[in-house]
Amino acid sequence: MSKDISDIVEIEETSEDNSKRKRTSEAWNHFKRVKVEGIQFAECNYCKTRLKAPAGYGTTHLHKHYEKVCKKRPRKTDIRQSFLKTNKKVSGEQELGTHIFNQEEARRELASMVILHDYTLSVVDHIGFRRYSTCLQPCFNMISRNTLKGDILKIYKDERTKYYNLLGKIKCRIAITTDMWTSSNNKGFMAVTGHFIDDNWTLQNCILRFLYVPAPHTAEVLADTLVESLMDWNRS
Fold this sequence. Notes:
Elements: E1 9-11, E2 31-36, E3 39-44, E4 50-52, H1 60-69, H2 79-91, H3 103-117, H4 127-136, H5 145-169, E5 175-182, E6 188-197, E7 203-213, H6 219-233
Antiparallel strand pairs: 1-2, 2-3, 3-4, 5-6, 6-7
Helix pairs in contact: 3-5
Organism: Sesamum radiatum
Pfam family, one: zf-BED
GO molecular function: sequence-specific double-stranded DNA binding; zinc ion binding
């Protein structure tokens, strides 16, 4: 084989005639088929080394070259770093200029956090929380507790509308359960939960109302409170 043989190379193109024999080995993600003077070779995409690869020759030697021989192959990324990058994107950090800060979205997430963890509205007045928020995202304009209250009520109205429309579409009956809660100042509250089977035969649950129940908590008072909550939804 002459020194100029590397100049006589044909890159094999995949045609409709040979598409029936697809190369499914992962090795072909790193090699391409070339033909030199009628002989089939696999050329490494990174170091351009050519290895014999006639039909039926197998790909073990290709895997070995990629894993142990090729010095120019891309190194595998630590999966933990991949998770960190993903988390950074979710948390709002600007990365390569692709993230655009959204004040309204940040406010909604703040309100959702307060709802989820039962924080007080005054959390937005805490110096430590303000300093942390500024460090995390300097573009965020901290809101007042009254604005936070309004954002929470908006989430409530949006969720209520969503479930109101959902309950209006289902064809099955809705089972109702109630639970009594007592606050730290000894005030009683009733949680009214609806249970139903959706079109996929999956049990769904949603809190319909969470309302104050005046004392004394007699059967008549509890019944009136339950009827009031159901009439408010107009789904009784």
